[in-house]
């Protein structure tokens, strides 16, 4: 892609995100979401492969539908209450439509079908944008409207997302699809605590984005797209592949890694709210995800992959490790001791 065009699209992504997260008016928030959608489409389809074009078409249709629902819910709320303020969403039907619209934008169950297919048709760096940056503005809108949303609906969608994200990831061999179902599962954790502690939702999103960025940068450095190539990735950058195992286990939420912190706090908060059964269910559902994270970690560290005799061996190539990648991996592994500092930030 032309560097000037890439700069324009990247700036538009930053602009759209900034407009949405800093606006108080529904029209401005909607405009920011539309700028984001239009900026990411060329990045998805830049390879001109039929799969990439199909992914960008699916993404456009889903996001356009979700934006229409969001605009309709805000107009309905303004019609009944005379308020265009994002925090003044009070009409019940408007709240229901907004929850549906944001769920479609994020890829929450039952509006998740587009997300794995779009990630599979995109490059690794575009997939990282779709899994993190593009989900930030809708998450902020959920954060701002959280007092008005229906707790029972959000809880049902969250548990369904955690269950389906773990269940569907079990039989995948394509790493981008595994990361997509991982994202759906983590969205379930973020959504279930949204009503009770919205700041905890944001902290979970930040730590998820950090760990996911570290994993995607590592996969891009080793050019790994599926499990069979991950088994031979150790010959390219051995140290990076070894730390990839820890980053994957951090994403699974194993102590004493960084990913354990949000799950620990979410379960603690649910218990405080006397939702012990809900906390138990979502904790058990995370074991499904743990299985395929362990499988990925095993494939990342295995040194003798079970290949047929005619498999092309990959030679050890001396690649330099990007400073950003190593920093992200260190943070995604070792941030748990800093948790008292993180939790005291207002």
Automatic annotation (TrEMBL):
Membrane topology: Multi-pass membrane protein
UniProt GO BP: mitochondrial electron transport, NADH to ubiquinone
GO MF annotations in UniProt: NADH dehydrogenase (ubiquinone) activity
Membrane-spanning parts: 59-79, 91-115, 151-171, 178-197, 203-225, 237-257, 277-300, 321-343
EC id: 7.1.1.2
Enzyme class name: translocase
Main location: mitochondrion
Keyword Mitochondrion annotated: yes
Compartments (UniProt record): Mitochondrion inner membrane
Keywords of this entry: Electron transport, Membrane, Mitochondrion, Mitochondrion inner membrane, NAD, Respiratory chain, Translocase, Transmembrane, Transmembrane helix, Transport, Ubiquinone
InterPro entries, A to Z: Complex_I_Subunit_2 (IPR050175), NADH_DH_su2_C (IPR010933), NADH_UbQ_OxRdtase_chain2 (IPR003917), ND/Mrp_TM (IPR001750)
GO CC, alphabetical: mitochondrial inner membrane
Annotated NADH dehydrogenase subunit 2 C-terminal domain residues: 290-343
Catalytic activity: a ubiquinone + NADH + 5 H(+)(in) = a ubiquinol + NAD(+) + 4 H(+)(out)
Domain NADH:quinone oxidoreductase/Mrp antiporter transmembrane: 23-288
Family that this chain belongs to: Belongs to the complex I subunit 2 family.
Function: Core subunit of the mitochondrial membrane respiratory chain NADH dehydrogenase (Complex I) which catalyzes electron transfer from NADH through the respiratory chain, using ubiquinone as an electron acceptor. Essential for the catalytic activity and assembly of complex I.
Protein name, per record: NADH-ubiquinone oxidoreductase chain 2
Organism per entry: Sayornis phoebe (Eastern phoebe)
Lineage: Eukaryota, Metazoa, Chordata, Craniata, Vertebrata
């Amino acid at each position: 892609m032309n560097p000037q065009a890439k700069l324009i699209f990247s700036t538009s992504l930053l602009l759209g995100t900034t407009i949405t997260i800093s606006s108080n008016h529904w029209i401005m928030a909607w405009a920011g979401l539309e700028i984001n959608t239009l900026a990411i489409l060329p990045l998805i389809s830049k390879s001109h492969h039929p799969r990439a074009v199909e992914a960008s078409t699916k993404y456009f249709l889903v996001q356009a539908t979700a934006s229409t629902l969001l605009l309709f819910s805000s107009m309905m709320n303004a019609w009944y209450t005379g308020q265009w303020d994002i925090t003044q969403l009070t009409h019940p039907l408007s709240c229901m439509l907004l929850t549906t619209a944001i769920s479609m934008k994020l890829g929450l169950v039952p509006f998740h079908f587009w997300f794995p297919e779009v990630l599979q048709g995109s490059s690794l760096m575009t997939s990282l944008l779709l899994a993190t940056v593009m989900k930030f503005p809708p998450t902020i809108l959920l954060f701002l409207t959280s007092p008005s949303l229906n707790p029972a609906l959000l809880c049902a969608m969250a548990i369904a997302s955690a269950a389906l994200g773990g269940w569907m990831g079990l039989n995948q061999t394509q790493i981008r699809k595994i990361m997509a179902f991982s994202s759906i599962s983590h969205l379930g954790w973020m959504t279930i605590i949204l009503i009770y502690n919205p700041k905890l939702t944001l902290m979970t999103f930040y730590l998820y984005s950090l760990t996911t960025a570290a994993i995607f940068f590592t996969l891009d450095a080793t050019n790994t797209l599926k499990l069979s190539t991950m088994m031979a990735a150790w010959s390219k950058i051995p140290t990076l592949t070894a730390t990839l195992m820890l980053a994957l286990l951090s994403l699974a939420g194993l102590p004493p890694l960084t990913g354990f912190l949000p799950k620990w706090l979410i379960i603690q908060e649910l218990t405080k709210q006397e939702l012990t059964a809900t906390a138990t269910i979502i904790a058990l559902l995370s074991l499904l995800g743990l299985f395929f994270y362990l499988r990925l970690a095993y494939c990342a560290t295995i040194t003798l992959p079970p290949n047929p005799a005619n498999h092309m061996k990959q030679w050890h190539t001396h690649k330099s490790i990007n400073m950003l990648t190593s920093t992200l991996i260190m943070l995604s592994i070792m941030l748990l001791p800093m948790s008292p500092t993180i939790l005291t930030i207002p």
